[in-house]
Amino acid sequence: MASLAIAGLTGLGAAGFSAALAAPATAETSVLAQTATDTDITLDSQVVDDAGVLSDSEKSEISDLLAKGPKETGVKGYLVFVDNQDPQSLAPQLQSEIGINNGLVIVINTSDRTYGTAPGAKVPTSVTTDVNSAIKENRGDGFPEGGKAVAKVLADESDGGNSAWLWGGVGVLAVGGGGAVVWSKKKRRKDEAAEVETTRSITPGDSSDLAQQPTHALRTVAAEELQSTDESIRKGAQELTTAESEFGVERTRELRKALESSQRTLSQAYGDHQRLANGLVRDEAEERDILIGIIANCGTADKNLNEQAERFATLREKLINAPEIVDKLFQETVDLRTRVPRARTTLESLTSRVDPALLSSVIDNPDIADAEITQAEEALSRARELLNLPPGEQGELVDAARAARMAMNQAASQLDSVDRAEVQLREAQSNLESLIDEVDGEITEATEHAASNAELDRTALAAAVEKAKTALADARSRGSQDPLGTYSALLEADGELDIQIDEARGARNSYERTIAMVDRTIADATARLQSVEDTIHTRGSMVGVTARSLAQSAGQALGDARRMRDTRPKDAFHAAQQANNIASQAAQHAQKDIDDYNRRHNNYGGGSGAGSMVTGLVLGSLLSGHGGFGGGFGGGGFGGGGGGGGDFGGGGDFGGF
């Protein structure tokens, strides 16, 4: 019998069972729901003892603990003891009937010591994990103590003791793992807090990094982004009203656009959040996609709106300080006027020592500076007129001051060029050729970046390249006649091109990292799917239609990932992740189909303790990918009673792990 059962398992490859252990709670529920059957059990209380294994006092004690759940962990738990029923199908059926998003149904079958859990949409994955850990590891003397262990987790009173109440006193073995299993709820919470902080630190638009974060962290940060965006919109609306009264509708157009965009984004995000709250998602993969979208969209909208609001806050501050600013600008125009005669004297001296043709790019600078200073003085005169107007009519004041500042900066630049002309002339004559070679090489590199599939600002890069090409051609044709002017223009173009190339390099590096991540995920998903396909091929009719359908869907997702790999790597990564999750679900269903077949034909899980134990060990070894005994133990002697026949069931007795 045992050899036949083992033979029925060999088709499942190494990837399946370890993936099943890591499957999200929502995926577990969807898998269990496939086999749901009708039942006359009603969850009229949080403890339902249909098997008659609890005394009145024991039931009362467990009920009191479970009643603390909603306040302490946010989860309302239902513990159900049944006899001769399938807990893996019953748990999700009961969860569906109560329809509580924060409800967690735990069903224990006392006859064969198996169990099933079914969490609602709002039950944190960490709580479900803690319940599963408590079932496996809390020592007790049977069903009553085991029930208390579960209830203490939900009441946040678990002491984390190491035990094996589900296994009926056999104890928990850690074969191949290097020792006994130790569970620390406090450490898990600390780790989860760190994961949330990591998720908060990610730039909202970086979907690839967000996709690497655990679901519980995405839930927390998505809720924070919703709240933050809502607050930003409320403040932004007030800021817009104030800004329009101070600066007018025309100058505040960008702020209004940012506000309206944020309002549309928030409306969509609230709709998505409500879908999650109502449990209207297929699985955890879809939930994660929605959460990442909320974080990315709300975060970006929040950032844009805050930037616009800060801009007008700065303008308002300038209005308040406008009298001092205008006086300071007037004093600077006086200082600039005194530099114009000195610049003329400097040029006269230079033309007596070098060929005047070499100074063609700066020879008119004093005249240009003089004209710019005049423009600044006119703008400042207008600013002083505006200062005498009442508040609310001074919006143009900021523009007048800005125009004066721009004209003064231009004048200062013209005069600075004259002051540095002699030094720059020598520098240009000695360095122009090397700069020409440098820019020529950078143009080639920029062209290579533009031809890649990386997400980069090709418009900005192309503009920088075009400017560099123009300056380069001018330097080659006129460098000997005007070294000062051509060198200065080429140096400016080189600086802008350097900035764009640095950004393009970063984008390509990010693209290549994403491609590597996609390739690893595709390889993992391919291995998992191949294991399932091998099982279907070798075990034939033992594997039902659900596993086959899931395998087909996983293959389609893998195909999508491969097609999008080069041009849309982020989407390809999400598709590969989806393929991985679906392949894991297919492996779970295939496992259950084979377990059911073995129970029907080989008395699986019954009297032959040694045979069933070997079957469980082989299944765990095949599916976990870790070799040896990794992950192979199934449901044991639940409720006490030594290590006799049936204490180690097949690989499926883990419930929804």
UniProtKB/TrEMBL annotation:
Region ranges (Disordered): 187-211
InterPro entries xrefs: TPM_dom
Any matching Pfam family: TPM_phosphatase
The keyword Signal belongs to this UniProt entry's keyword annotation: yes
Domain of life: Bacteria
Signal peptide positions on this chain: 1-22
Compositional bias of kind Polar residues: 199-211
Domain annotation TPM: ranges: 47-138
Key words of the record: Coiled coil, Signal
Coiled coil start-end: 411-445
Protein name (Swiss-Prot/TrEMBL): Chromosome segregation ATPase
